[in-house]
């Protein structure tokens, strides 16, 4: 029989404290709805009254189906009653069914930060939690700097938890506020707290300043804690918080956790983790971490030939869990370290059948290695590899021809914007014998800011592809990387481009040239060709003489 473990997400508050992160109220609603579908138990929406965004969020909160929306605040201040403290009132007036209040548990902070007596602090905790319970709210107490406070004065730190429980707290959450606690030492403290109150009332809230927030959270679960707090992708102040995207699958799939606890996340929720992780990155307009545990694009990528050979024989050899369980997939990238095992598997994934003795394999492998010596990177551009393989196996598909393209850059004066550098691209495409000329500028349609020559080229190329237009309308360029491979007058540029489409597919392509625009065009043409091939677009009509 396993215990129920509660998942408490603090992305909307702790995550917003990340340097460079600023959620809008609508961002918060979108994230909250995704967390609700995932199956977390509590969603901490922020601190009502602390800023206009949080106030707007609580004024029109999302309609959650499973999770409990929670407001965050602090215990009442000394010299005021819990009913007359205006800061506490803002939190109460948010009307959420649960409220988490933070309070001091370290004697140093009580004396020097609050400037009050130990007994006054205990009274503040007790009376604040009692106020919430009297109003029918579920009350949680976030014990700030608990592990440091326990090390300094264990009796007083425990007395703070006693005061919270006496006031009616359903949970006392032990916070490693500065992220400096060690997992084994923290686990011994958690054991003592659980022995006093029962693990069903004890939570853990770890910060990642030593890179051990996930480990500390799991150690606390083994020690008896039955609530874990954290954020999506480990977002948070300084080095971040415990990463729920790593914690959730570990709890569900790994011993001993799967044998002692269960969560509200079901099998479908577990498979949705990559999607939810990427959703947060899209909200933040940042590139997902390809190497993130469980959910990263490279989390199950096997590059070395020796590893790949073993993977073909037994997929469990180098994988700690099956990738599909967590909504991910196995990747055998092509690179100059590849062997035939990599090649055969990648060809099968692309729908190209080949036997191990096929002479074309050796030629393709040699071609891949030669092109990587020139600067191509097929381990990071799976779609370009597929296009290369189809050509080597006589399965290349021509949809249209780019007869020519031109990109110009000029500096101009705009009365409103001042001096601007603007790029213009012109592309001439031939589809079934019909020549189409498309042009586009690099200015953003809304902000009118310059987005560079490659964006102008993308817009021009995608503006009119005749019968293929419907196939590419949902393509969105999500990442663009440039690297100068050699210096001096003969510099070579590598461009890596990532796209996604309305079906949720993501694919990457590569181009290499001394000219960045030419390299970009190579990658763009591969990206479109891959999309058309995958979606079964009709081939172009052969022209006379072909």
TrEMBL record:
UniProt record, GO biological process: isoleucine biosynthetic process; L-leucine biosynthetic process
GO MF term set: (R)-citramalate synthase activity; 2-isopropylmalate synthase activity
SUPFAM superfamilies: 2-isopropylmalate synthase LeuA, allosteric (dimerisation) domain (SSF110921), Aldolase (SSF51569)
Biochemical pathway: Amino-acid biosynthesis; L-isoleucine biosynthesis; 2-oxobutanoate from pyruvate: step 1/3
Keywords: Amino-acid biosynthesis, Branched-chain amino acid biosynthesis, Isoleucine biosynthesis, Transferase
Catalytic activity from the UniProt record: pyruvate + acetyl-CoA + H2O = (3R)-citramalate + CoA + H(+)
Protein name as catalogued: Citramalate synthase
InterPro entries noted in UniProt: 2-isopropylmalate_synth_dimer, AIPM/Hcit_synth_CS, Aldolase_TIM, Citramal_synthase, LeuA/HCS_post-cat, LeuA_allosteric_dom_sf, PYR_CT
Entry annotated with the keyword Ribosomal protein: no
Entry's EC annotation: 2.3.3.21
Family per record: Belongs to the alpha-IPM synthase/homocitrate synthase family.
Source organism: Rubrimonas cliftonensis
Primary enzyme class: transferase
